[in-house]
Amino acid sequence: MTKRVLLTVASCIVFAGAAAVSSAVGRDNAVATANWTNPGGLVDESGFSRLEQINSGNAAKLGLAWALDLDGEVSLEATPLAVDGVLYFTGSQSKVYAVDAVSGKVLWTYDPQIWKRSRFKFRLNFGVNRGLAYADGRIFLGALDGYLTALDAKTGQEVWKTLSVPAESLHTVTGAPRVFNGKVIIGNAGGDSAQRGFVTAYDQKTGQQVWRFYTTPAKPGENGGDPVMEMAAKTWTGEYWKVGGGGGAVWNGITFDPELNRIYIGVGNAGPYNPKVRNPGGGDNLFITSIVALDAETGKYVWHYQQNPNESWDYKATANMITATLTIDGKPRKVLMQSPTNGFFYVLDRQTGKLISAEKTGKVTWAERIDLETGRPVEAPNIRYETGESIIWPGPAGTHNWQAMAFNPQTGLVYIPYMQLGARYTTNLTPGDFAFGGMTLHSHKDPNDPADGKGALLAWDPVRQQARWRVQHDHLWNGGVLTTAGNLVFQGTADGWFSTYDATSGKRLWRFNAGLGIIAAPMSYAVGGKQYVSVLVGYGGTTAAMSDVMNVGWKYGAQPRRLLTFTLDGKAVLPPSPGPDMAVHAVDDPSIQIDEADVTAGRALSVACIACHGIGLKAAGSPAPDLRESQIALTQDGLATVLKEGALAERGMPQFDFTDAQVRQLHAYIRATAREALGTRKPDTAPPLPSRL
What SS3 class is residue 385? Predict the structure, then answer.
């Protein structure tokens, strides 16, 4: 064989090997594009699908492929995962569903039965769960009671389970875990109860703890010589450990960066909110309302950026964070983007944590601007209610909350579920006020601003830091966002419409009446070369605590909760269901005598029920019924059966340790509010009860 022949053969072998590698990479990319294996799609949390079969040219042909009714569910906030033709998602009480992605047939379910295991934690939060994680044939669930569970993705059988929070603490879990490098990470909620925040990474195979990072310091002498916690402790004053753990819960935003092998965590609000109680000597209170970068292998601190030093308004950096490479000033920059509750859009250098830019996305009055040299806000005067009252925008709901924003690398735009609503914070308390740490807060709308109390879909240019287009919505609390390579943006809204828009112009191309408000983010996947879009339909969550601005007329239990899946030329049809109803259909028995002292006492007790039943126990579109309309609450015995005996615990109604006298007082207050609605009793003139997020 000649040298030329040898070279030719060798070349053929090399080229054949390269072709095989290219083919394998192509198959891997095709599988990755078809699946949706992370809550935000890819690990970058961008909410971007590379599928383009459904596009701006044919989106008008979208139709319903199938619908799955989810009996017993209420508030649905999760984005499903799609793995090799199977959808995985969670319901209100952390129940897991595995569903055939083409037919909608349920393959298996797993119910963690949180109502059995943790009666106490069950009352701390309304029933919601924001989803799952997937890796190597396993599904990972963080449940409300704090347990992290690994399930076999094919069968739904438990592989392991571990308690991720202290058993007797006020911590709960509502967010989705994330997976990385053979580990699974989970945070928790509890900042509103002043619990000390932290995140924990576990081994995916065994459930053994690998590392834990605390977001606020322990009391002096208990930081174990940890230099990071000692650094944080220098920014806290007073005896903060005596009024709680400081807050700083990581209940939602967690992003893995494989390029730098880092984890970014979004830290929540301070607890208590009032800085005079929590932080009387002043100080930044690290790492409250911060983005913190951690080494993915060790959990060690790398850098932090704090958005709100000495946070005092229930602001939080818990919105989703998106990694990307953007061209800024002619140079590619590895960035991290977030639009948190405080109303600014932040672009950070994710290598260093240095602030690149920050601008207001809408109505923001608490600060003039963010100083790009120091990274600190230039604050407005009297925003910490120093004179007894502050009215600022945004309120604690924020200009953007947990509903995911999305980034499309083709358009270069970020699509934000924007909100506009202020709040009044006051320490001027009057009899009947319920205070959080010596202060209280209420939603506030400017009657002269027609956009107040409403939301929008906002297309934001993160390089120029300005809005490109905006779609105004009629209501405040709307769904998260999906964007696709087909130049599309999908979003559901509080009024029950599921729409798709041209990602470049914002023009609506198609919409579908889902029959109920949507708060979850959609996702897209493909099976057999066919693209689908799915979204969970279940209005609720914090709509009870802010029912004065989030009630859009969806009655508890009146409309089916569903998973809806769409494709081109889909032909399925939803059966009709009741529409919105803003009327109060109160029930009463005029023969029941109530004592006014009991009414007053019951009003105070009702604060424990706000999260689910709303302010004044009269929520609609909430995780629980409007008690003015409840037949069960009509009699004291019926109420006692539910409250003291836990008759409806399996359906999401916690059992309480109320005394007979307290049940009588709550019953009296419910009867009083029902009679106010019926016009047979004068309206309550006591100060309004507070909003609570």
Answer: coil
Whether residue 136 lies inside any domain: the answer is: no
Q: Which residue, among 57, 14, 51, 48, has the nearest Cα to 33 in the 3D structure?
A: 51
How far is it, in rounded angstroms, from Cα 364 to Cα 91? 34
Which residue type sits at 134? Y
Instruction: Read off the tokens for 232.
Output: 């944080």
Mean pLDDT is lowest, of 165-169, 585-589, 615-619, for: 615-619
Give the distance between the most distant pair of CA atoms in the chain.
110
d(CA 412, CA 429): 48
pLDDT reported for residue 286: 98
Query: Tens digits of per-residue pLDDT, 312-350?
Result: 999 999 999 999 999 999 999 999 999 999 999 999 999
Specify the pairing of strand 481-484 against strand 48-49.
parallel
Among 558, 582, 606, give the residue marking a domain's end: 582
Whether 543 and 638 share a structural domain? no
Looking at the structure, tell me whether residues 565 and 629 fall in a common domain.
no
Within a domain: 670: yes
Residues 83-93: what's their mean pLDDT? 97
pLDDT at 17 > cutoff 50: no
133: β partners = 140
Both tokens assigned to 120: 């106490």
pLDDT at 532: 98
Q: For residue 115, is it within any domain?
A: no
Q: Which residues are within 8 A (CB) of 57 and not within 5 positions of it... i.e. 6 or more apart?
A: none
Cα 251–Cα 253–Cα 259 angle in degrees, nearest 5: 140
Task: Compute the average pLDDT of residues 422-439.
Answer: 80
In DSSP terms, 259 is beta-bridged to none
Q: Is the pLDDT of residue 9 over 70?
A: no
Rounded to 5 degrees, φ, ψ at 501 are -125, 155
Mean pLDDT of the chain: 91
C-alpha dihedral over 98, 102, 103, 105, to 10 degrees?
-10
> Is the domain of 549 the same as that of 499?
yes
With 80 as the cut, is the pLDDT of residue 28 above it?
Answer: no
| Residue 251 maps to a domain | no
Residue 647 and residue 119: Cα distance in Å, rounded? 13
- Rounded CA gap, 275 and 235, in Å? 13
Query: What is the rounded distance in angstroms from the CA atom of residue 308 to the CA atom of residue 284?
Result: 8
Dist CA 362 CA 460 (whole Å): 11
| Residue in 495, 464, 491 with CA at minimum distance from that of residue 479 | 491
Query: Taking Cα atoms as reference points, which of 462, 481, 546, 479 lies closest to residue 517?
Result: 479
Q: Which residues are catalytic?
A: 314
pLDDT in tens, 610-644: 888 888 887 766 678 899 999 999 999 999 999 88
Q: Could you give the 3-state DSSP secondary structure of residue 555?
A: coil
Angle at 12 between CA 10 and CA 13, to 5 degrees: 65
C-beta atoms surrounding 399 within 10 Å: 29
- Which residues face 563 on adjacent strands? 68, 536
Up-side HSE of residue 549: CA atoms within 13 Å toward CB? 28
Find out whether the peptide bond into 287 is cis, omega within 30 degrees of 0: yes
CATH of residue 626: 1.10.760.10
Give residue 476's domain range: 40-77+412-417+454-582
Number of domains in the chain: 2
Q: What confidence tens digit (pLDDT) does each residue in 226-240 have?
A: 999 999 999 999 998
